[in-house]
């Protein structure tokens, strides 16, 4: 072999998929192995579309055709690059731990990936390696597009493409097993070629086994006994704001357990509001129904406004049952002020909220409705397309609506004050309209921020959730004079919104969330509960705005919190962290944690659905349900009924 036994040869794998291939090359050549991370630069707001790549050291490669066609500015590129470089450096630390990178100056560097499609990542890596003074640069890959291999060849000293099929439709098509490479596997590959900082798989198993043994001793078993949750409810009942999460946006058991706990908080502890990760006007229709203030004949009608993707979040069998129960509960109460409401915290309803503001003003002040219609007319030529507006505003293709929405919110606050008490509309309706104006103002800013980067838009969204929560609590407190700060609320949202961001990767990316903000705002007057699952099925889509499917959830990755919980052998249990006991101590070290949203991509499981976190700092308690099933949408499509094909299809054995 050409480079075998040479002291000046270094093999670099592009993580994660290129590292196992690079490890085999390094072993065959007797050369040291290191990682050389590269990150895609996604188009702001359309992150799945690559506009380039960035490698260690900050070297960039841009697809000028994409940049030019979309009018992407230098500032936008810098913002995306800064974000991705921070993530790249975090991953380098995770892979290498305390070990410094291998010296590349005056070395023969062999860059290895598991395949080359467009070659953008490899080009960025090659530029960065050149910048670090490599004497000779070799690119090696088992399979590649023939065009990419030919184009990349002149840019390096040597290129080895094992196979260049005439019909190249993607790297994964040429592997019998193309399952995602995990961070533990990357560290294991480094360890197998002499990286002393990487933990062997056996040591990982021993550590996790000891942790699982300890958790069996300190966990609260859940056996369908009504008393199972008594201790948890006692702690929740002492808080003003209780946040109940979910590890997916489509698991029946998460909804079922969350609903059970919420019912008991309402009945036994006097909670007066349920605030959910849903749009304000859509949820308010449910609120009117459960408080007997709407013409809807039944709960299924009250859920009808949840018509946009992803409909199954709130139009499902579990929420239907809860809405019916809440109506029955409220109907038994004599005082309307004691009735429990159902509210939305989110801000995606830009155009629906505009319509709600105008409809309210037409009833109370037609002249003011005309002014609102004129202000909001600046959105008209975007055809109710939120992202189209955001893209145009971010690229300065036309004027923004910022001044108009701010002015309208100021007017609505005045109307709410003047008309809310004893005016021509009930105070609830005045508050509903004012909040819709706030949604429009925040949504306008959010859709502009989408094209500046994820951290900016994510933070705006969760700050809006906190402000909505604060406004809701203040409004409900005003309805019970002499009992300020007495209203208590249950929040339903994804773990990623309710677990404290400071205990996760989010903090390093400059992101915050509602869980963090609530703790900072309400101090000890909060309680947060997270959920985890090891495997089962989930209702999710394969892409944004695509049909709901019943998809199989893969067993959790080794070394993750979910895998450790599975190793206990317990099918359902509760861990409470507030006392700082053994559960907190055993789980304090950061591990992988899974998060499945409305889109589930098992083929890119590690990259798409895992992050690192310290669970005891993230939540006050966690419920683990080892095997779970998909929530049932009210509209079950053919793809949902069929479910995902088994991995052994067509033999299904």
Would you mind describing this structure in some detail?
- It is built from 25 helices and 19 strands.
- α5 links the parallel β7 and β8.
- With 653 residues, the protein is of the alpha/beta class.
- Strands 9, 10, 11, 12, 13, 14, 15, 16 and 19 form a nine-stranded mixed beta sheet that branches. Strands 2-1-6-7-8 form a five-stranded parallel beta sheet, sandwiched between helices. A three-stranded antiparallel beta sheet has the order 3-4-5.
- 47% of the residues are buried.
- The protein folds into four domains: 191 residues, Rossmann fold (3-Layer(aba) Sandwich); 210 residues, 3-Layer(aba) Sandwich (EreA/ChaN-like  fold), CATH 3.40.1660; 70 residues, 2-Layer Sandwich (EreA/ChaN-like, small alpha-beta sandwich), CATH 3.30.1870; 113 residues.
- The two termini are 42 Å apart.
- The chain is globular, with a radius of gyration of 27 Å.
Fill in the keyword field for this structure:
653 residues, alpha/beta, Rossmann fold, EreA/ChaN-like  fold, EreA/ChaN-like, small alpha-beta sandwich, 4 domains, nine-stranded mixed sheet, five-stranded parallel sheet, globular
């Amino acid at each position: 072999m050409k480079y075998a036994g040479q002291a000046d040869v270094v093999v670099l794998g592009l993580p994660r998929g290129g590292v196992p291939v690079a490890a085999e090359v390094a072993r065959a050549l007797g050369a040291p192995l290191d990682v050389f991370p590269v990150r895609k630069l996604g188009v702001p707001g359309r992150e799945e579309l690559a506009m380039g790549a960035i490698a260690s050291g900050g070297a960039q490669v841009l697809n000028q055709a994409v940049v030019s066609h979309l009018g992407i500015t230098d500032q936008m590129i810098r913002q995306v690059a800064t974000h991705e470089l921070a993530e790249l450096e975090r991953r380098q630390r995770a892979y290498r731990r305390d070990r410094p990178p291998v010296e590349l100056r005056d070395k023969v560097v062999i860059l290895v990936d598991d395949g080359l499609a467009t070659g953008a990542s490899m080009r960025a890596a090659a530029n960065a390696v050149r910048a670090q003074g490599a004497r000779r640069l070799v690119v090696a890959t088992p399979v590649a597009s023939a065009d990419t291999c030919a184009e990349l060849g002149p840019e390096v000293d040597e290129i080895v493409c094992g196979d260049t099929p005439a019909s190249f439709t993607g790297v994964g098509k040429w592997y019998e097993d193309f399952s995602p490479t995990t961070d533990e596997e990357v560290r294991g590959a480094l360890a197998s070629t002499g990286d002393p900082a990487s933990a062997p798989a056996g040591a990982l198993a021993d550590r996790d086994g000891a942790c699982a043994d300890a958790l069996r001793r300190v966990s609260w078993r859940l056996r369908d006994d009504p008393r199972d949750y008594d201790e948890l409810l006692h702690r929740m009942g002492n808080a003003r704001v209780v946040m109940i999460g979910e590890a997916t946006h489509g698991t029946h058991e998460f909804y079922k357990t969350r609903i059970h706990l919420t019912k008991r908080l309402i009945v036994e502890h006097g909670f007066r509001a349920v605030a959910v990760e849903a749009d304000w006007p859509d949820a308010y229709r449910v609120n009117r129904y459960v408080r007997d203030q709407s013409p809807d004949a039944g709960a299924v009608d009250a859920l009808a406004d949840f018509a946009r993707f992803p409909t199954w979040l709130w139009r499902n069998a579990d929420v239907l049952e809860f809405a019916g129960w809440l109506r029955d509960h409220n109907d038994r109460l004599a005082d309307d002020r004691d009735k429990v409401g159902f509210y939305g915290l989110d801000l995606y309803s830009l155009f629906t909220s505009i319509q709600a503001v105008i409809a309210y003003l037409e009833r109370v002040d037609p002249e003011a409705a005309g002014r609102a219609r004129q202000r909001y007319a600046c959105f008209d030529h975007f055809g109710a397309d939120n992202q189209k507006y955001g893209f145009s505003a971010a690229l300065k293709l036309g004027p923004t609506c910022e001044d108009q929405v701010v002015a309208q919110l100021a007017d609505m606050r005045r109307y709410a004050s003047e008309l809310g008490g004893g005016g021509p509309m009930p105070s609830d309706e005045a508050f509903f309209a004012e909040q819709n104006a706030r949604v429009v103002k925040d949504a306008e800013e959010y859709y502009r921020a989408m094209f500046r980067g994820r951290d900016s838009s994510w933070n705006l969204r969760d700050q809006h959730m906190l402000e909505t929560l604060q406004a809701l609590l203040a409004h409900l407190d005003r309805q019970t004079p002499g009992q300020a700060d007495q209203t208590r609320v249950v929040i339903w949202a994804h773990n990623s919104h309710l677990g404290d961001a400071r205990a996760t990767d989010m903090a390093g990316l400059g992101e915050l969330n509602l869980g963090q903000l609530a703790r900072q705002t309400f101090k000890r007057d909060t309680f947060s509960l997270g959920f985890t699952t090891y495997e089962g099925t989930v209702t999710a889509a394969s892409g944004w705005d695509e049909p709901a499917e019943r998809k199989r959830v893969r067993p959790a990755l080794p070394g993750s919190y979910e895998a450790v919980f599975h190793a206990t052998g317990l099918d359902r249990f509760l861990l409470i962290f507030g006392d700082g006991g053994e559960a907190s101590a055993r789980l304090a070290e950061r591990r992988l944690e899974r998060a499945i949203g409305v889109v589930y991509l098992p083929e890119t499981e590690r990259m798409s659905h895992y992050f690192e976190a310290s669970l005891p700092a993230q939540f006050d308690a966690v419920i683990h349900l080892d095997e779970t099933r998909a929530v049932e949408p009210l509209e079950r499509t053919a793809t949902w009924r069929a479910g995902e094909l088994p991995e052994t299809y067509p033999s299904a054995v």
